[in-house]
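Entry type: protein chain
Record version: 2
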Amino acid sequence: MARDSAQTEYLFRAPLWLYDGAAAWHFVTVPAAVSAELHAAHRGAQKPGGSVRVRVALGVTRWNTSIFWDRRRNAYLLPIKAQVRAREHLRTGDSVELSLTTVA
């Protein structure tokens, strides 16, 4: 759902997964079609590391964060903090439905 040229909302469902490195970060991979659209729309306007500022709604929890481009997956990754996982009773492997809105 497009709100204006600076804000676009995306609704999707994706699994929560645990990064297999030293840190215990949890992520949701933004679906390929949404990632491609975001990548094209924000090319040249991305923050350091290829990040894009977003507003996320997951269950009753709302927060501002950044999504990060992952070349291996050719998609954006959305980090899900421990505080959000606890509040929403989420575990690794759960399928989460969320709203992601780009912010200027």
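Comment: The CA atoms of residues 35 and 75 lie 5 Å apart.
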